[in-house]
Amino acid sequence: MKTIPQPHNRMNVLSLLRHILPFVLPYRRLVVLTLTLTLVGSLLAQVNAVVLDRAVDAINALIQTNFTWTQATRILLLISAILLGKELVAAIVTFFQRYFGERMRIFVSRDMSLKVVERMLTFRMAFFTQEENETGKLQSRIDQGVRSMSNTVNNFFIEILPLFTSALLALVLMFLANVYVGLVALFIVPIYFYVTHLQALKMKGGRRSIFASHQAVSQSILSIIESISVIKSFNREGIEADRQADIQCTMTEQQLSTRQQSYMWSGLKSFLEQIGTVLIIILTAYLVLTDYPGMSIGKIMYHVMLFANVSAPIRQLHRIYDDMNDALIYAEGFFGILHATEEVEHSGAYHPETIRGDFELTHVDFAYSNGTQALTDVSMHIRAGKITALVGLSGAGKSTVVNLLDKFYQPQHGTIKLDGADLDKWDTTWLREHIGLVLQKNHIFAGTIEENIRYGNPHATREQVEEAARKAYIYDQIVALPQGFAASALQLSGGQQQRIAIARMFLKNPPIIFLDEPTASLDAIATEQIKASIDAIKQGRTVIIISHNIGQIIDADDIYVLQQGRVVQAGSPEEVYRQGGIYKEIFDASARSMNADKIAHTLSEG
Ligand code: ADP
Question: pTM to 2 decimals?
Answer without folding.
Answer: 0.76
